[in-house]
Design goal:
Elements: H1 3-10, E1 17-21, E2 27-28, H2 30-39, H3 56-64, E3 69-77, H4 84-88, H5 91-107, E4 113-115, E5 149-150, H6 152-158, E6 168-176
Antiparallel strand pairs: 1-3, 2-5, 3-6, 4-6
Length: 177
């Protein structure tokens, strides 16, 4: 992949930032999954979520098969960060940018494994609920946390702020290649 060309293309997108990282830098922890199990209504209801994505060690092994990872971030301001509906309404814009970056990589012959922010909403009813395989595995992007990844240490290593203010939402995606 021509990284210089990709960086030129990334500069044209409304990204807050991006970093090329070694997947070995990522911290995988079962502790991150606690949020999924205890707080997320999508737990066990989507192939993009645990346990459908596999165990944390399985996810770590899957990500570890890649030599490189591109981390992208977008930010957006909301009137009230405590308003979950308003906050989540900003997610599709990030997902669109994530798909654009994936398409840029694919245009160079690289098929990235993408982790993003979603529990997947492609289908009205996920096939996992019927014991069937995912209908759109090429379009579905599991969320970063579903894999047990703690991105905060990598953000700190890269010098990227994660908390910008009380009404700023930060979205992150990881594209492994």
């Amino acid at each position: 992949m021509n990284r210089e060309l990709l960086e030129q293309q990334l500069a044209e997108l409304p990204l807050y930032g991006y970093f090329f990282i070694d997947p070995a830098q990522l911290e995988f922890s079962e502790r991150i999954r606690t949020i999924c199990r205890q707080e997320c209504p999508m737990y066990a209801k989507s192939w993009a979520c645990p346990p459908g994505v596999g165990s944390v060690p399985e996810c770590q092994a899957r990500c570890g098969r890649y030599e490189n990872c591109l981390m992208i971030a977008t930010i957006t301001e909301v009137a009230d960060i405590a308003d979950l509906d308003e906050t989540l309404a900003t997610r599709p814009a990030h997902e669109e940018i994530t798909n654009q970056v994936g398409a840029l990589m694919e245009a160079q012959g690289v098929k990235p494994y993408i982790l993003s922010t979603e529990a997947c909403a492609i289908c009205d009813r996920c096939a996992i609920l019927d014991g069937l395989p995912c209908r759109h595995p090429d379009k579905m992007h599991p969320c970063v946390e579903s894999h047990g990844i703690n991105v905060i240490p990598v953000l700190e290593q890269c010098g990227m702020e994660f908390q910008y203010g009380q009404n700023v939402v930060t979205w992150m995606s990881l594209l492994f290649y």
